Amino acid sequence: MSDGATQGHDAFTELGPAVRSALSERGFSTPTEPQRKAIPTLTQGRDALVVAPTGTGKTETAMLPVLDALASETDDRFGIGALYITPLRALNRDMRERLEWWGETLGLEVDVRHGDTTQYQRGKQADDPPDVLVTTPETLQAMLTGSKLRVALEDVDHVVVDEVHELAAAKRGAQLTVGLERLREVAGEFQRVGLSATVGDPDAVGQFLTGGRPCSIMEVDIGSRLDVRVVRPQVTDRDERLSSELVTDAETASHVRFIDDLIDDHDSVLVFVNTRQTAEALGSRFKELGTNLGVHHGSLSKEARIEVEDQFKAGELDALLCTSSMELGIDVGRVDHVVQYGSPRQVSRLVQRVGRAGHRRDQTSAGTVVTTHADDTLEAMAIARQARAGEVEPAGIHDGSLDTVANQIAGLVMDTGEISAMTAYTVLTRAYPFRDLDEAQFKSVVRELARNNVVWLDEDRDSLEKRRGTWQYFYQNLSMIPDEATYDVEDVASGKQVGTLDERFVVNFATPGEVFVQRGEMWRITTIDEEEETVTVSPIEDPAGEVPSWTGSEIPVPKAVAGEVGELRRVAGTQLQDGAPVDSVASHVAARYDADAETVADGLSQLDGHEAPIPDENTVLVEFQGREVVVNACQGHKINETLGRVLSALLGQRAGSSVAMDVDPYRVELEVPRGITAGDVIEVLEETDPDHLAALVELSLKNADALKFKLAQVATKFGSLKRWRGRGSTEFGRDRLLAALEDTPMYEEALREVRHEDLAIAATAELLADLQSGRVALETVSEHTPIGTGGRSSGRELLSPENADASVIQTVKERIQSDRVILLCLHCKEWDRRQQVGRVRDQPECPECGSTRIAALNPWADEVVAAVRADDKEDEQEKMTERAYRSGSLVQTHGKQAVTALAARGVGPHNAARIINRLREDEDEFYRDILRQEREYARTQSFWD
């Protein structure tokens, strides 16, 4: 055994007698792996990053050396000796419970401070500071500006930052890095310790923590201890029976049944989902099934979250259905299995989530990924293999965010009342994310703040000073989390808070009488109070509801994961095209991946009968049928999003018309105007100069809501706008804002942030260069393939070039007239016909009985036809029938005009009636109303279950 190994094995001997005695009392006889690796280094006072799974004793790893140092101090210390900074208030509660025992045993005071701490408690902390203070990044910002607290902070010798990987990928973290440099101005040098889940770039995260100074990295390998199975449940007869009970299809019923069986087979299970919508939808299904499970996500009230956390920890619940909030170190006791519903999208998420299971005493962490479609299955298989191999994505640090610079300039001025601009610049650029901030950018931000009355700029003295607006700005912007209204949801009967809804959901969906799911239960909206930002609701038993829309976009799948999916397609697809049986190929693949042959076969289903070239990691396949184009590219979300925007912008410019776009990690789907051919798409890919890509993307973003929405948020952080509310901001208003701020640092930052979060310009430019050089093959086919039609559609955005209105209206008209509808007689119920809208008579009538009460239905609505004809209807069929009769009434009264409106996307009988009732005499205005409704549907599509 090496000296290092011996030292690690005896890590607790590095600690003083008081701490060793407390360890024995607490039952800690043997250090965990992170404790063995890190404690010897930390006791020497060195800066360090500890990378290990949640639940492996990371808190004690960092804090035992800190508590030992504080307990052994001989000098009287007035102030705070150590700060424990954590990104979630929920973690504060856990930290306090765990650290208070150590404090009491060692004679040290441990306290908590965050936004909800009472004024009395804050005053007490300032007058008699604790030895250890657990706090949040935002509260540290406020503490640095208090005169008494600044004195208390002078004694800080240790700062522990928990979940530093989470902060490194967010502006909150960029803000914290400057906050730590401001603390250094007060306390001098102090030890910095970061606690992180597994990341792909630990060295960069370490530099992020220390401001580029030396940082020891202690990393625990989790990949070798992961036991993950990928499963696509097969539908059974039981699932067919269960589907009606759960008011869902048999396939979803099979997922619920399979997960329920896993919960039965284990003592304590975390079931992770990727979105809060899925948590609510799945939660309601488990409730119907009677599963002993609680729902946990960030939009539930604090009380509701704490209640299910405590119930799970006490063994009163068998499982928790949760979102990413449970990836962090909230203590819910022992977890013996983790279920991930749907692909986790990223390796880091799988590692963090499954890493919560079975971690005591270095056990294997066991988990099951339940997949829902072919892409999902191959993606989960790739992620599971990469997780075992330790191939984790980098954290994605926000470098040079200018609104954070603005925020921290105000903080520096608040700290002392006056500071030289050069000193402020020096402090800012010591922080790792701002190491490359140039003076010109800094000065442009300062001038903007001065124009907005946030700080006073004395150019003669090169001085920044506090003014009346500084205090108000600073405390309104303690957080870098964008300010959007959230509505409290309150039970009208009890007055208790159920949870929250984001403003965009309330504005676009919520009206009295509507039904939605929250906390796994159904609620009907009673009233909406916009001034108080409150929605009152009453519980109902009706299982047909809408799932709330939550803030947040889909987790982006990285290129490395999408590329491995392409490789899987290539290897398996080549064998299948050479005549190998599916079962044989699936068994061969299953031997190398964490999935059974049946699941693999399901993942390869898109390749069955795929005769065209296979889109893989080195092949892009463009398929063209009618006006629908699919660019199959295994490049991941961000590259495909960038590629899609460029194609949409350039093709739309050629046609003078809108191009609808839908993107996932494996394909870009476009609906192009008439006149655009496959040759145009190929020409854009082969002739667009990669060096011009950034400018083209910026041009396309000017017509996108994403940039305008981001700009409004950034302008708020610069003090240019009062607290921005989406409700009061019209499309026209946002366009004017974009025009007014285009040459400012606010525009620069909004553009940088959209690029950072959603796009990959450099990687997409590289892809174009590879396509043009032949390093990546470009193939075409004039029909849709099974792979091309296998996307998971996540909503569309219309990118409209200027002055394209007439062309857009004509395109909409032509599309709707060529679409097909089912015409169904509601009188005799015997006659139905599929017909193009353009060929429908002005007043349709049944050739069998002569009735004019004809329903116009979507061409795939066979279940509605069956429901109308059924004698003994179930609840769901009753709703379909009611909708058909509303359609029939419209057609009977308004003839072909009603058929046309009903054929549009997302336009049901209710909205069709509204369009018709506007009594438009101008045909273009009629189609313009339809287009407006279609765009509204596209924007709010993610709100629907």
From TrEMBL:
InterPro entries in UniProt: ATP-dep_Helicase (IPR052511), DEAD/DEAH_box_helicase_dom (IPR011545), Helicase_ATP-bd (IPR014001), Helicase_C-like (IPR001650), Lhr-like (IPR017170), Lhr-like_DEAD/DEAH_assoc (IPR013701), Lhr_WH_dom (IPR045628), P-loop_NTPase (IPR027417)
Origin: domain of life: Archaea
Record PROSITE patterns: HELICASE_ATP_BIND_1 (PS51192), HELICASE_CTER (PS51194)
Pfam families: DEAD (PF00270), DEAD_assoc (PF08494), Helicase_C (PF00271), WHD_Lhr (PF19306)
UniProt key word Cytoplasm: no
A Gene Ontology biological process term: DNA repair
GO molecular function: ATP binding; ATP hydrolysis activity; catalytic activity, acting on DNA; DNA binding; helicase activity
Helicase C-terminal domain ranges (all copies): 258-413
Record key words, sorted: ATP-binding, DNA damage, DNA repair, DNA-binding, Helicase, Hydrolase, Isomerase, Nucleotide-binding
Residues covered by the Helicase ATP-binding domain: 39-217
Protein family according to the UniProt entry: Belongs to the Lhr helicase family. Lhr-Core subfamily.
Name of this protein: DEAD/DEAH box helicase
